Recover the amino acids of this structure.
């Protein structure tokens, strides 16, 4: 991928600078274009929102407790609790990254509301395979 970007950058630089070929004629200024399609990676299929898009959110990783990641029949399941330390009801978005070593093999989102000063359970699943996956959380909280 990097080589393609570098090559395209050199073609673009020649177009601006007027590079010449060895025969003294100007090099082609039209970069070769190929059709590409992009789709969301399957491992992120269980997310509904982009992290950081909850209105007026704060990071709330310390609100999350009792987190576990276990293999299920059709993938991996993460569960846990969030305890709302504020005086207002809160909306939580918990993004769970399922990792095999340092490689992310799945991302899932769990949305849950917690009353003021109370706790709520959450659950996130992903159809990832692997024997010894571990989970990392991103927890966002916003007043309801």
């Amino acid at each position: 991928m990097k080589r393609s970007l570098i090559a395209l950058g050199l073609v673009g630089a020649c177009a601006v600078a007027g590079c010449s070929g060895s025969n003294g004629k100007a090099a082609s200024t039209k970069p070769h274009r190929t059709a590409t399609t992009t789709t969301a990676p399957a491992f992120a299929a269980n997310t509904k929102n982009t992290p950081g898009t909850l209105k007026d959110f704060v990071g709330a990783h310390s609100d999350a407790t009792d987190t576990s990641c276990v293999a299920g029949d059709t993938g991996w399941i993460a569960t846990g609790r969030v305890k709302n330390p504020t005086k207002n009801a809160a909306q939580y978005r918990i993004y769970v990254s399922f990792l095999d070593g340092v490689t992310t093999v799945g991302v899932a989102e769990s949305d849950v509301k917690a009353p003021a000063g109370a706790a709520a359970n959450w659950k996130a699943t992903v159809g990832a395979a692997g024997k010894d996956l571990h989970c990392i959380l991103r927890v966002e909280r916003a007043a309801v």
User: Anything to note?
Assistant: The longest helix spans residues 2-17. The helical segments are 2-17.
